[in-house]
UniProtKB/TrEMBL annotation, chain A:
Lineage of origin: Bacteria, Bacillati, Bacillota, Clostridia, Halanaerobiales
InterPro entries in the cross-refs: BMP_lipoprotein, Peripla_BP_I, PnrA-like
Record family assignment: Belongs to the BMP lipoprotein family.
Organism: Halanaerobium saccharolyticum
Residue span, ABC transporter substrate-binding protein PnrA-like domain: 34-322
A GO CC term attached to the entry: plasma membrane
Swiss-Prot/TrEMBL keywords: Cell membrane, Lipoprotein, Membrane, Signal
Protein name: Nucleoside-binding protein
From TrEMBL, chain B:
Entries under CDD domains matching the protein: TM_PBP1_transp_TpRbsC_like
Alphabetical list of InterPro entries matching this protein: ABC_transp_permease (IPR001851)
Pfam families, alphabetized: BPD_transp_2
Protein keywords: Cell membrane, Membrane, Transmembrane, Transmembrane helix
Subcellular location: Cell membrane
Molecular function GO labels: transmembrane transporter activity
Listed GO CC annotations: plasma membrane
PANTHER family tied to this protein: ABC TRANSPORTER, PERMEASE PROTEIN (PTHR47089), GUANOSINE ABC TRANSPORTER PERMEASE PROTEIN NUPP (PTHR47089:SF1)
Signal peptide: none
Protein name: Nucleoside ABC transporter membrane protein
Membrane topology, as annotated: Multi-pass membrane protein
Transmembrane segments: 12-35, 92-108, 115-133, 145-167, 212-230, 260-280, 292-318, 338-360
Amino acid sequence: MKKVISLAIVFAFVMMVVFAAVPAAAQEDVRVGIVLSTGGLGDLSFNDAAYRGLQRAEEELGISFDYIEPADPSEDQTALRRFASRGYDLVIGVGFQMADSLKTVAAEYPDTKFAHVDQAFENVPDNIVTLNFAEWEGSFLAGALAALTSESGNVGFVGGVDFALIHRFEGGFYQGAKYINPDIEIQSMYADDFGNPAKGREIALGMIDDGADVIYHAAGGTGMGVFQAAEEEDIYAIGVDSNQNYIAPGYIIASMLKQVDKAVFDTVKSVVNNNYQGGNNLYFTLADGGVDLTSLTKVEQPVLDAYENGTITKEELETIRQMKEEVTAPYADRIAKIKEMIINGEIKVKNWGETGRPENL
Amino acid sequence: MNKYSDKIKSVLTDLGLSLLSIIVALIVGTLFIYLTDKSPLDAYSALYIGAFGSFRAIVNTLWRSTPLILTGLAVALPFRAGLFNIGAEGQLLMGGFTAGIVGFYFTSLPTIIHLPFAIIAGMFVAGLWGGLPGVLKAKLDVHEVIATIMLNYIAMALTINYGINLFKETGRPATPRIMKSAAMFNFNNMNKYPFLKDLPLSDLFSQPAIRLHLNFFLAVIAAVILWYLLFKTTLGYELRAVGFNPDGAEYGGIKASKSIITVMFISGAVAGLAGVGEVLGTHFSFMQGMDAGYGFTGIAVALIGQTHPIGVILGGLLFGALAQGGLEMQFSGIPSEIVMLIQALVIFFVAALQVFKVYLAKRKAKGGVE
């Protein structure tokens, strides 16, 4: 036994000595550090989109970037601070949990530029820019499309967590559906969880039982369960954030795009071109393509990519194409018209995130 | 004299074995790091530097260990009485939520009243949450594992789903921020106090990145109190007797049911303190995700610490170091999945070691007979 112990101690000592050597960090032109929200990469929505934006910036602008997926919220501040202290030019934080930490760290490093995705601040400091999205405008289109394609006059909304950010989606969807059909019935439920597909499926199945035949989700990973329910019960679903149309081929008629990748890319570009707009809450809207609906007539690149890397088969790609032709293409002009009316202000969409969610819907 | 040197020897053996299993875990971990095309040496040096490489790193390792020590204690204490408390997670949530509410609701109390009030309220509610399965066990013989697991779900629903939703108008999925008067003392602010700023380390502590707060010391004090309670008091003796043989203890005149309720109440309160510290010291509001599974990790901490209060401190420090250094590993380019895997390997090997030790003890016992 003694041998074992002394061996262990020697081992530990050797390791400590070895660890003392620190690798030096390489220097490049513009370096971007991003701290993702707790869901991390692979959420097929928010974090993945931010990551795509940086990949694009890496290819087109020649920047380099590093990312961190915190295991829990107590790591946010440490991660942000590490990027700032290592001299990164732009430090990005994703998700509402990060807001307080980002403000704290930004105050300590006034010469570093920061960006926060998804929460507007009051009195934004000069070295922070917040990237926000007019989800209510995009969701309005999703609501209108749902009402147009619904045969039962009954549509559903599944939200992640019941708070202001998700109310923006719900509000847009609600107003859009009512705009097309004032008598439409809209079921609305919150899963209280962004990562629980089983719960998403339960909720969607319940809504289908009560007559819904188009369901829109704003619930991150929970939404995967909504797609599954749609596939099982042969109804339609609408995706969110990224182009999710290939996840359940033929059952997802469109996705409400929240172009986090574009916003992130634009911010990096502004830093590279020296016109970073610090001190502002930026809103990305329908007008500048920051939010949008996927094309109702043609199959777009993310779906083709999914075919090319083998996620979906040729038949499934064909199913999607056929579905677009039969189900959504007839309404393409109508939706384009509505989009135009929102952009030029003829339709005013209320932001439930600010006005609050109306009682007794 | 001889008795003491035997004891020291056995403690050293334990420590050496634990260290050995950590090293084995790291060696197995290198295989997985090779999968990512990174150098294991870089990865482990990052782990070490992140956890112990600087004054700041060490202090923050203490900070990350705090909730783990407390949940570890909350599992270890009932374990000694033969009870398996899976409910530390729920008790942590109840304690944290209560402290968060007390922290923002009272707007004009001085710190000297507000902070202790918030801490005690959180611990008390969490204690009740832990005591309930104790009562069920003692009076109705409901198995404590089932009861505590179910109470975890109820606590999650009550605090995260229902509780936070009450405050959804604030725009963030969290309770409102607590008042300054309820915040735990943070070592970062040391040089803002007249007496403390003259202490030797105050300059080092005032770096902005220092997150260590009062709760670490409360955790250590809790461990010492529990150690005293367990080994130096009648109650502790009774607890251990019940854990050893409940029927025998009853026969010997110990009221098992009273001990069970008491131990579960204390354990709940200790787990609650973990949540209280996270809310009043780290996040300043009860927010979604702040529990981070500490209640469940606490089970591993307690087992690694051999359910001895002082061992639990060491176990908590190990896990805290893994958490604190894990982030640094990500900075050296190791994906977070591999970081988690290495953390899990350490737990696995340390746990496997316990089995190995039981085997050794058995063999020794046999040898003794021959």
